Queue: 4 jobs
Job 1
Amino acid sequence: MKEIQVGLIGFGTVGSGTAQVLYEQAERIRKRTGLSIVLRRVVDIGVDTLPAHFHNVILSKDVNDIFSDPDIDIVVELIGGTTLAKTFVLQAIEHGKHVVTANKALLSEHGREIFETAAANGVEVGFEASVGGGIPLIKSLKEGLVANKIMSIMGIMNGTANYILSQMTDHGTPFAEILKDAQDKGFAEADPTYDVEGIDTAHKLVILMTMAYGMNIRLEDVAIEGISRIEPIDINFAREFGYRIKLLAISRNYGDHVEARVHPTMVPETHMLASINGAYNGVQFTGDMVEDVLLYGLGAGKMPTGSAVVADIVDIARNISRGCINRVPALSYLPEHIKPRRITPMAELRCPYYFRISTLDNPGVLSTISGILGKHDISIESVIQKGRRQQGTVPIVMRTYEAGEANVQKALAEIDGLETSTDKTVMIRILTDHEE
Amino acid sequence: MKEIQVGLIGFGTVGSGTAQVLYEQAERIRKRTGLSIVLRRVVDIGVDTLPAHFHNVILSKDVNDIFSDPDIDIVVELIGGTTLAKTFVLQAIEHGKHVVTANKALLSEHGREIFETAAANGVEVGFEASVGGGIPLIKSLKEGLVANKIMSIMGIMNGTANYILSQMTDHGTPFAEILKDAQDKGFAEADPTYDVEGIDTAHKLVILMTMAYGMNIRLEDVAIEGISRIEPIDINFAREFGYRIKLLAISRNYGDHVEARVHPTMVPETHMLASINGAYNGVQFTGDMVEDVLLYGLGAGKMPTGSAVVADIVDIARNISRGCINRVPALSYLPEHIKPRRITPMAELRCPYYFRISTLDNPGVLSTISGILGKHDISIESVIQKGRRQQGTVPIVMRTYEAGEANVQKALAEIDGLETSTDKTVMIRILTDHEE
């Protein structure tokens, strides 16, 4: 039986999970592929011993032990970050090793260089685990939906942010309190910025857009807003209007230009994305032929992410053994068909909006605010003014009809500049039916 | 550029959709694969002309025109049924053609013979479109979840049945009325038996189980109940208890034995499957590594199904051009590892139950019924007795704790045999948390 040997860099959560999946599923993989996939080496500067059942695995602290081992076919990078990880991935490729990684930051920031280097060296780079943990999102996009122009991508791609919003929804607990609790329990990072400010989600959107549309896109092209300004009161108002608040990545394909945005969004409660709670992720692709397809599962975690890493290893192992490396192009389109495209500026967006305006409860305030909105072509669909007064301040909550983002920004700047305004207005974009 | 030629048998809804997808997506497929995939021939005894844009396609009424054309690499069977379709598929294989089909009845009834013949002839059989329309379920199961023991399959796999149940839920309209309306509108078959009695769902479950577990299974092994006895009143009671009623295919893997059942099920309203409405399908696979993964989309329709058929065509075309036919085994496991397994008899099932007992409103009836249930070790969790009396009859509605199916069947036979009972009891199994 042909043997494929794997070298693993990084024995942290996902690294040790990947090793465990390879170990526990070895026989199943043999029965499915006719191949023996063997973890040969692990490199991790912080690890001195491996669990006993890995007695055939060579542990060391020097990545060159992997690169210079001619028996190793596939190098798995699971250290995270974008500096050392980049160096190691490029070195592995230059040594003629195939690479599997779960590193979304690395790919969204340096993907172009990595994929070009891989092409030049005739090796594959697998990255199923970089988006949506164990969910087979990338394979579905590249192969299952191959006969579709992807019209839109909409997804919940960060489990920490979704967990926080779900807890706020279920228990009315404030953002900071849930975040602290999640950090104490160890499933939110000590520095939660990437998760709650939407950056991690944007990394993943960049990866999906590249493949969905066959385009070059950089992280800087994505408009990003996080969830740290959302309060339980917004979640309650959302519910009254029939919505759930989710941190969504949204990209719609207009042919000559495409959207790329990450922000809290009010999702109609009948939409499948509204039902995705806790640490789960879900991504909806809309194809011109297939219409809506949604994939759902755990977006992180040791074993689910390990499952996706090993799926990539198996995919590459099949290609090695059958002599069909790069059978499916890494980025879905052949390199010569990957082109830049114009990113729609946020100012061109049109959708309905939710505003929570904090104002002194003075006579005439609502009339002043309505006047400003009207001047900027923003029509109010409904208004709620009922929250209890807090230190003389009252929230005015509005849902608008479809309006232009540029106008909204101008109007809110004016409103927030009023003498009666006591805090920056909370603005949340609303997903409409024609966006679904 | 390498050209792959396709022969299509059957130019009905899915056949013409497949032709259309190939036509509209030809350039996209070239940009993604470097291959030109060309529809060369169509055979359909009922079609005399093709739309004008298919002017390069040769139309005829004799399947041998396809089989004997040496330029044709892939034959697509889309006539449905299990007699002519079987003959044509086997003939295509024996002529050395790869086959793509959406025919779940054919595969669930004659799959073994077809896959063995294909293996003997060194050709592939693609069948992504046979389950879940355009959803890339089969590729996800065979490749994306390759590193998982599949612990369970739970799915809504028939759009007609799900549409009827959704309409009953939203509008309280009786089953027969919605069915008639759906037939009038052309999206339920004139003979709806396969759809509403669960047979179509069972066909699909057979296909998924074969691949998920690496086992032989026949349609006769599946316990099947349809939805025709469900009434709006049951849907209302379900809602009171916090459930939605769905026609589910359920299979759990206990290692030495596996479940195979299709029946109406009360699904907790917080479960993702409860949110799948209308003509949509969704299947949840639970893997030992990845945990729950759910895929959702349109389970039928001309273009969505065409999208899946063309995904299979592209997959095979890539394998032809790269010389790696059967890179992934047709049934996920290598043929020598596909084994029979014991199917759990329904009598061994344990779950909570919903009963709607129709009885005369006589004194002592509830006590008699409770006595029968108690004798059979069935504990009542809650009881509702409030429906208006109809011709002296009153419904007694109960939810039980977990009970044994064999006992339930015996108890219901006794209850239905009481002089006070006016109709057969409606029994619906309840999905519990540990089943999720």
Job 2
Amino acid sequence: MEDNTTSRPLILVTNDDGIFAKGIKELVKAIHPFGEVVVVAPDKPQSGKSHAVTLDAPLWYMVSKFDDADRAYKCTGTPSDCIKIALYRIMDRKPDLIISGINHGSNSSVNILYSGTMGAAMEGAIHGIPSIGFSLLSFNSDADFAAAAHFAAIITEKTISRLGSLPFVCLNVNIPCLPIDEIKGIKVVRQSKGEWIEDFVRNYHPSNKRPYYWLTGEYHDLEPDSHDTDTWHLDNGYIAIQPVTVDCTDYKALDAMNGEGWF
Amino acid sequence: MEDNTTSRPLILVTNDDGIFAKGIKELVKAIHPFGEVVVVAPDKPQSGKSHAVTLDAPLWYMVSKFDDADRAYKCTGTPSDCIKIALYRIMDRKPDLIISGINHGSNSSVNILYSGTMGAAMEGAIHGIPSIGFSLLSFNSDADFAAAAHFAAIITEKTISRLGSLPFVCLNVNIPCLPIDEIKGIKVVRQSKGEWIEDFVRNYHPSNKRPYYWLTGEYHDLEPDSHDTDTWHLDNGYIAIQPVTVDCTDYKALDAMNGEGWF
């Protein structure tokens, strides 16, 4: 780990569990040797907020204390809001790298679509800024981040060494909740097909007796026999890195529809 | 337009402008001849909510009156919540088709990522249900939906005629705000590269004088010279249909990273 004081890259950090979560503290502690770190993170948990932006309320932000960060701000908005307000109001130059996380919980497979952590990273990618989202496969608020922080530092350092000639603009990195020496390796893989089978738990309001429903569910891997996916690698002790695009076009379907002359 | 009472497809309808918006009323009026229509839509505007799901509060839903729908429910959640609760609590069988919209405002280019309308359609696609999001290029709450409704009916009827052998699972359909006879055609195209350059407008709280910020911005097309994009076609009077995937993997980057032996 070198402290490149001559040309320290500017790193913008956010998350979706909120600025007081353990994951973002462990992340900043792990990566601050590699650059100037500015934290702009939600002032409260924003899990499941996807790429949402706040259109119907103003945003507030204020300076926050944060160990190991050069500067830190907490913001009332979503993770994507944090990136936008950081880029256009808070920072005086474009960051060289955006890092989001370390999320408490998996963002592999379709979870990327619901994830505020990855919403923030993808917001960076829209603006052409290399962005990485890190997630640990544990929802425990006091989870052991030793391995996640260790490998986040390795992946961050490697990325910084190639800034300007990266083959990707956004990475979704998921890390098994295992001791460092039980992690089998790091693999660059594709997103697996999966879905949540939901079980809305019903309860009743104590006064008016109206039913309400809590969203709960269970993740189902739709291709358990494929060995080239994020899900398979995570299940087998590997760190899974998914390069991410913000182009949602299904090119096979595009060609098929035009081939069939739909319109 | 035939009323196929022998095998009427079950169509689930939602939106992100809320169940009382003009766009969803015009949509249901246009498509109800093609099937049994069940509306499950947010009870209030949910624009910009992307694929967000509600994890920190329970959901409520109740029956709502809705002209031309077979059944309708308003729900306290996001558009994605509406799809989930419809599939797992409200409907007694899986819908044959999910339609979201008609959105007040464009969901072309990167706007698909912020869009609650498209978040709902993509939620349907995750579950393997053919899904279409329709958007009109006008944010006016009383916009003229004549052309949008006309073409939504055509695209819906065509999709229903091929249920079971569709070349796509999700479509993002954007429609210029023009009279029907000024629409030049319907094109199946890719998502253009673009970004919002944000301008956070600052104001001050009347009592404590703290500054707050409203997210506003201007869309910038990053490839105005490409003539195969949604943006170009919309600017030139065409309806743009983008087939959408829920696989966010950047396969070019994946191959490049593995080719370079990153890990």
Job 3
Amino acid sequence: MNLEQIYHPVKPGLELVEAKLAEISSDEIPLLSQLLQYALLKVGKRVRPAITLLCGKFYSYDLELLVPMATAVEVLHIGTLVHDDIIDNADMRHGKPAVYRAWGKNSALLLGDYLFSRAGSLATTTENLRVIRRFTETLMTISGGELREGSQTFDMASARDSYYKWISDKTACLFVMASECASVLSGCPEEQVQALKDYALNFGLAFQIIDDILDFVGDPAVLGKPVGSDLSEGASTLPSILYAEKYPKDRTIHAIIVDHRKDLVPLAVEKVRASGIIDDCRSIAQEFSQRASLSLDKLPDCDARRSLKALVAFVIERNR
Amino acid sequence: MNLEQIYHPVKPGLELVEAKLAEISSDEIPLLSQLLQYALLKVGKRVRPAITLLCGKFYSYDLELLVPMATAVEVLHIGTLVHDDIIDNADMRHGKPAVYRAWGKNSALLLGDYLFSRAGSLATTTENLRVIRRFTETLMTISGGELREGSQTFDMASARDSYYKWISDKTACLFVMASECASVLSGCPEEQVQALKDYALNFGLAFQIIDDILDFVGDPAVLGKPVGSDLSEGASTLPSILYAEKYPKDRTIHAIIVDHRKDLVPLAVEKVRASGIIDDCRSIAQEFSQRASLSLDKLPDCDARRSLKALVAFVIERNR
């Protein structure tokens, strides 16, 4: 299934999300409008709104609640990207210059703050306290997780655990929140809310691992960033961790992370590519993807379930 | 009345706010804990929590609701300061290096995001939808307002109106939200909620005008920043606006704001000081202070009302 087929069950909902994003992007403050349009419109694959709507489609599919919710999730996500790109010195995002590159760091910082608040305000329109609470806490997990990562030294013994904790906080947590909020809003029984959260957690982990693989083997032209960007920024992701585990005497990764030897990044990328480690990483992503898929078996069979299963398969195959 | 006397009716509540802030500042992520302690503890005069508690003291003074609310207001406020200092290149805050100076820009950016989320989460514990909605929207007003200001050209005809809109968004808006949330949580009748909001708006405007006056006439050692910082950052505040209105042929202010002639800042400061404009600014702040005080007459006479009146008088007299 391609993405259009996967999204088909929630197509009208996704169109309403786009309309909502366009509505948000029109503000009486001209600079704010321009920033919002640049950051929010015609960017990305809308994976998070799609998952939100799909998770809300098993019981009462109330678009009055689910469209603001799905929009809130996307706006929060984009807010974190706007700030992340400042932190990571990223050049490109969604095939164009990152917001801070195009509009300056100060505007990007304020835009991120605005988006967080806007997202919270959208989530509040659901008037569901559990949903609002979960939504509000999510940015704590994401930003706190980044601070945890920032304070870590390169300790091989705990590297893999730290990595999973990190990608769980920075990536999977948003999917988990989206699945919980959507299923709660649709009146899903608690056991199935939990099953959708399990799906979302494993989906998010698989999604991020593939992202981290692509940083080693992806096409820079397609990704819009150079190969080895994570290592250059001092982040050891699954491929470099597995490499360092397999070849403990090779200090290349260690020298990059600990001694900031950025000149060694191309060599490390070559070594990881030649080592067969990327296949190991794909297998691990595949495992998370299977767990995600399995947890859906607790939910009624329907077009949304088929799409969620196809989506995690699609994510594993993606090359951008 | 000194600040201790003014705060007396809400002293036990303020102690609970301090305890809450200390509780928040202890996190399992070491770097996050250090950042939180640096940013949240033993800083500032806690004017916003005090106003929150005082506004909640006219009817049902329920500290179970008002302490999280007052803490949320302070945490949100400090989050905006952490980000503002990055934007303004500020050296000092609360008598010590700004968070980004002491811990780096990336950590400061993430800390701000964390604080926004933490504040929202605290506000959510009130379980009052009107309160949560108002709280959530506030950061939109603050960050949107900063983006409006950033996109403005120096237009004399609209300068004063733009200034009031700007300080209303960036400063008064938080006081207004605090007063509304606290009075709603205490079961205040709607007409009196409105009166407290009027108080808070005028209080906030007076508060910011005094801040802007001190940027011209304050003691740099007491303020922790050089005289003329606002002009140096390209911000025209009430003193420079009144000066440019009074002396339309003098292009000093214009040259600083439009042509970025920072070398002219000391001259502009001297001219404003010598012009008598500062007294005009004080009279305007005094007017807002009187309006604030007057609006309280719609509320029952009690220790909280006396403190709120004394607080706005105190703010007008402050030198830091």
Job 4
Amino acid sequence: MLVLVGLGLWDEKDLNLKGIEEAKACDIVYLDGYTSKLFGAHKEQLEKAIGKQIQVADRTFIESGEILNYAVTNKVCLLVGGDPLIATTHTDLLLRAREKGINTKIIHNTSIYSAIADTGLQMYKFGKSATVAFWQENFKPTSFYDTIIENKDRGLHTLLFLDIDADQGKYMTANEAIQLLSEIDGAKGLLRGADVVVCCRMGSPSQLIKYGKMEALKNFDFGLPLHILIVPGRLHEMEEKFLAQFKA
Amino acid sequence: MLVLVGLGLWDEKDLNLKGIEEAKACDIVYLDGYTSKLFGAHKEQLEKAIGKQIQVADRTFIESGEILNYAVTNKVCLLVGGDPLIATTHTDLLLRAREKGINTKIIHNTSIYSAIADTGLQMYKFGKSATVAFWQENFKPTSFYDTIIENKDRGLHTLLFLDIDADQGKYMTANEAIQLLSEIDGAKGLLRGADVVVCCRMGSPSQLIKYGKMEALKNFDFGLPLHILIVPGRLHEMEEKFLAQFKA
């Protein structure tokens, strides 16, 4: 059996009672050390909360499906930051487990999609979301820009995940993302003077939300990761009033 | 102080450790009995999990802001089904609390936005979401239909919340929503032969997901509420494979 348990946003206290109960009842407990990282808790704190030893699983162990070999005869738990099914990796793993006839269970938890409600932006007004990827010598993806413009045309907000290179311990900052955005917008100028919302370390005691013009926030010191960027669409009166709290 | 604590999807075991800790530390604990209802737990079970007496708050008590009078001098907790900021009511309450100089705290929890990932549909491919409202003699809203078509044109999925009339204890079924959808589509025929995904009682032991043509699911018995409807956009190969598990 394979049990995917969501860890929520920040630390071991974000675990829910179901997640603790399920993890406790498993023979082996793995922590996904690749797609998700819990910034507010070490493995030891999670072990204490669950009352069980935890092994850190790397990318290959999960993506190759090696973890499933253990789940055929054991009750295997995989702890995943946020909600366990927000990343494609785990949806894929779940599907492969079922194809092998392995029973599966999912214990949901808070995802970033809930946390961004702290901005006061209404969830139903978000359009498609996108990821801002690190540019490389030969690969400079710009599709996230098109998503923003398409959403903006319809008055919708865009949630932008910022790239993570976990192997290198690199997390894109909001500053880098705003810089890329300005660069792509360039001569087109569709986002000239546009407002953005920067969400930092959501769900943590040092959570920070800033709202202002791209230009004004470009050099702001947002502190440690994770950062997330939102490009708002048309604002309702209440959304505007709420965002005013976060004006830089 | 006002502390909004999310209850998650189904029962008292969906509470997270932070939520329990915060509720325990409050002077008065209210349960939102209007915008959200926890189907899997009675007040008594929540009281046991929290170790505190709970009072049920009705619509007027929350929307009039009467609850804030207590939060000026007391530490007041409001328990809300799902995530506490997904409904506009609570965002508004939070804003009014801050305007009165009342300290606020938000403990997030799993929302339906995480739970629908069980369908295998990728979160980033959802467009704007909408609500299917009960039709009345003089008010027959159809804007949710336009949202579906706009999303579909861009290849995006549409999440449709189904109307709740909590005062009357009425919950729109997926069957009623599909019926309305067919009626509005009528001669236009943009959704003729379209597939839908029906999600029932998400996060509960009796959770049910069904995937199929609108026509085929129109008379299917989905059982007790809550139901939610998704009109998928363009499907990736993995999304298709995942949905195949739920074919009606």
